[in-house]
Amino acid sequence: MDWLDGVINRLFARRSSLDQSLLLYLFIGVLAVAFTTLITVSICVSWERLIIMPDFKESSYWEYLTWTPPVKSSRTIQMLELIRQYSIFLYVFLGIYIATKLFYRKRILQPIRILEKSIEQIEQGNYHQPVYYNTYDEFEKTSLGLDHLRLTLQTNQKELNKLYHDQKKVNAAFSHDLRTPLATIQNNLELLEAYFEQDCLSQEAFEKSARKIKDSITRLNSFSKTMHQLQKLEDRPLQKTLQPLSRIEEHMLDLGRLRSEKELILTKEYPRITTKYDGHLINEVVENLLNNAYRFAERTISITITLQEQLLIIYVKDDGPGFSKKELLTATEPYYSQNKSSHFGLGLTIAEALAQKHGGNLKIANSLEGGAIVSAVFSLKD
């Protein structure tokens, strides 16, 4: 029945649901039954007539098929007559069996095996193998749903891995910066203990060590507040509302009027549209970038707002010294150095985290004309 399989495969190049497929398999099976029955009857009649009337000729094919032998006939004729009369029942059984067998093998068993293998891959954590079964039936809808689940799990896994690496980076940064104040506290306590045991602790030495311990404790409190602030960023919900995009520009101009010690140049490269975005989140990112720019700019700060498809991009450029080679690699990492001449700080870390929460990212670079450039990207997709 390979020819039947081939015919069915060609017919199923078009869209069909499972119930339509079953009807088509059964219809082709009925045609096969009718054809084989016709062939069997023709052969039986031919043998019967050849035995009884070898020279007889009929005027029509129907009279040929409906011819009946004499009542008294040989066992061979009787056997052929039985085959002619009852072969249709055998062919009907075989036709239904083969049609349903082919339907089960091609339209039920095959997609089930594909889905089972895909589920097994997903259970093993392999989210890179796509689930594909293109037959336009109910199993294709199931495979598309399973593939969507695979992509969702793959995205979640990437986010979890990124969150894990970011957390490791934050922990390493804090561990690095906690060593200095802890070492300072320990050394000064040991020094005070040694002076006290030797009964030579002067007022000046005590005040000096106490001041260092107090400063170190202040730094530790600052680190604790920073950790709490970063934790709040992770739990902060994204609240997009429909509003004019020009409100971001208005907020920047308000910030520029509040800090008139340096010139703020604003360039707009976007149409006046109304779209959904989290205005408070984007304004907080802008404030962090501007605070960093005002801190290092000499005279001017340039802001460019542009819209590319569904991405809002804000460039903040200052005419300061720019980023060092080391800062270009680590400026957004949460190292909280007390070195005020560095671009390091919590502002860029917060800005990057908020931009990522809004479906975008944060990039830093140096301008060819000198100065630092920070670009914040926000997704405006629903």
TrEMBL record:
<keyword id="KW-1133">Transmembrane helix</keyword>
<keyword id="KW-0597">Phosphoprotein</keyword>
<dbReference type="InterPro" id="IPR003594">
    <property type="entry name" value="HATPase_dom"/>
</dbReference>
<keyword id="KW-1003">Cell membrane</keyword>
<dbReference type="InterPro" id="IPR005467">
    <property type="entry name" value="His_kinase_dom"/>
</dbReference>
<keyword id="KW-0067">ATP-binding</keyword>
<dbReference type="InterPro" id="IPR003660">
    <property type="entry name" value="HAMP_dom"/>
</dbReference>
<dbReference type="InterPro" id="IPR036890">
    <property type="entry name" value="HATPase_C_sf"/>
</dbReference>
<keyword id="KW-0812">Transmembrane</keyword>
<keyword id="KW-0902">Two-component regulatory system</keyword>
<feature type="domain" description="Histidine kinase">
    <location>
        <begin position="173"/>
        <end position="382"/>
    </location>
</feature>
<protein>
    <recommendedName>
        <fullName>histidine kinase</fullName>
        <ecNumber>2.7.13.3</ecNumber>
    </recommendedName>
</protein>
<dbReference type="Pfam" id="PF00512">
    <property type="entry name" value="HisKA"/>
</dbReference>
<dbReference type="InterPro" id="IPR004358">
    <property type="entry name" value="Sig_transdc_His_kin-like_C"/>
</dbReference>
<keyword id="KW-0808">Transferase</keyword>
<feature type="domain" description="HAMP">
    <location>
        <begin position="106"/>
        <end position="158"/>
    </location>
</feature>
<dbReference type="Pfam" id="PF02518">
    <property type="entry name" value="HATPase_c"/>
</dbReference>
<keyword id="KW-0547">Nucleotide-binding</keyword>
<feature type="transmembrane region" description="Helical">
    <location>
        <begin position="82"/>
        <end position="104"/>
    </location>
</feature>
<dbReference type="InterPro" id="IPR003661">
    <property type="entry name" value="HisK_dim/P_dom"/>
</dbReference>
<dbReference type="InterPro" id="IPR036097">
    <property type="entry name" value="HisK_dim/P_sf"/>
</dbReference>
<keyword id="KW-0472">Membrane</keyword>
<dbReference type="GO" id="GO:0016301">
    <property type="term" value="F:kinase activity"/>
</dbReference>
<dbReference type="InterPro" id="IPR050398">
    <property type="entry name" value="HssS/ArlS-like"/>
</dbReference>
<feature type="transmembrane region" description="Helical">
    <location>
        <begin position="22"/>
        <end position="47"/>
    </location>
</feature>
<keyword id="KW-0418">Kinase</keyword>
